Amino acid sequence: MRDHVVAVDIGTGSARAGVFTSRGALLGKGEHPIIMNRPRENHAEHDSENIWAAVCTAVRAAVAASGVDISVIGAIGFDATCSLVVRDADGKPLTVSTGGEDRFDTIVWLDHRALAEADFCTATKHQVLEHTGHFMSPEMEMPKLMWLKKNLPQSWARAGYFFDLADFMTWKATGSLARSRCTLTAKWNYLAHREPGWQTDFLNVIGLGDLRERGNLPEETTPVGESVGTLTAQAAEALGLDRECHVGAGMIDAYAGALGTLGGRAGDLNALEHQLALIAGTSSCIVSFLRERKRSTGMWGPYYEAVFPDTWLVEAGQSATGALLDHIVGMHAAGGEPTAALHDRIVRRIAELRAVEGDAFGERIHVLPDFHGNRSPLADPHAVGVVSGLTLDASFDGLCRLYWRTCVGVALGLRHILEKMHDYGYVPDTLHVAGGHVKNAVLMELYSDITGCKVVVPKMNEAVLLGTAIAASVSCGLYDSLATAGAAMYPGGHERMPDKGKKTLYDRDYRRFLAMYRHRAELESME
Fold first, then answer.
1. Sequence-separated (6 or more) residues with CB below 8 Å from residue 236
2. Other CB atoms within 10 Å distance of the CB of residue 60
3. What pTM was estimated for this model as a whole?
């Protein structure tokens, strides 16, 4: 009986795979790094063949670690970052790099080369922007495609296929040109609630009237939980699986994490609207599900059926959170390579210093965490970070103070997002946190105390892989719906309530946080 599934998560720096039972138990994992090319500021590129090879290595390792026979694996699912893969008419890699190497055929999600193109999209004020918070981000695919057409016309002329990375993986695995409703709705300005979903007038206005033909993009999309086919002989051999294995529609990684953390509540939409998924790693994504569409200025969405049927999804986010802490560690005189061990050492020392100094620890340092722009709620990719309160202290304890207050700034940024959401009628009061931040005791404390929300951490901190496994289990018929699969496979979680005694302290910090935004704007407006 095929009652196991494989889930693959393609992140910024590695591909991970896990083998799951139909009850959500993770039996084995594998991971392999992927390369990134950074030829100039704001440019970041992947080699999609390198990604595929990394996935194959990770899947083989996960299956070996699980001890199961491949005959019991019913499906494989893929989630990935919203990176843009470009292939020529023969399906071969096509350069997106100013360096001209064809192997670098993928623009990474965090690449900000298309800032001007994003601003152009925003200026159109087209109705599609009602589903991007009224602003276009350079992390979306349309600005990147505009940049490609303008700056690398030879690549555009030779292009035969454009893929979101998750859709590239399902194509590589099956040969199917199906595109996921999740990816196209969230990252390609496809309106799944309208017919037709592609808004031709918008494509014409931004100079991409030939996009669909050039990129082999279909009119219809495939919902999450549906199979796009079974593995080809070549893919089965590469992955170490068999040809009877189904391949589920791809997912954006953060939305897979939302499914993994909130899937157990999908059967009750009233309860689901009070829950928020916080997928926190290099960046942070905040995902909420809604029965009815609500305003979302400064957020992405609402997107119709990006995950659950007949349900809207809205996403907010912080472009650099874990990446910001790495940056602080790397730039400080007492820091260095931001390894997990160094982060742990800093967190332990912060606990010791706070035990001695109490709330006075680092209190005069204030941080606006917009070092890579402000995704939400300001929707300003040009925003910059601000640090106030530095001295000549270059000691390790000085680093700990700055690190602590940067964590406070990150959590205050989350509160800023939540308060805007409440202004628009959203009602979340519980944060379900998954990702690398779960391992950072400082952030986990602050997320609860600064926002005033209950925080839930799944007992298995693999929410992204689990969400992909949930969708895969539906694609091969183990379950009849995402809600049923989510309820059966969710592992439960540990809860933390906010410390109400800290409310006055962090309310003051929040007022200062908002004041810093005003002062930054004042400085930048001076002539």
1. 242, 243, 245
2. 17
3. 0.91
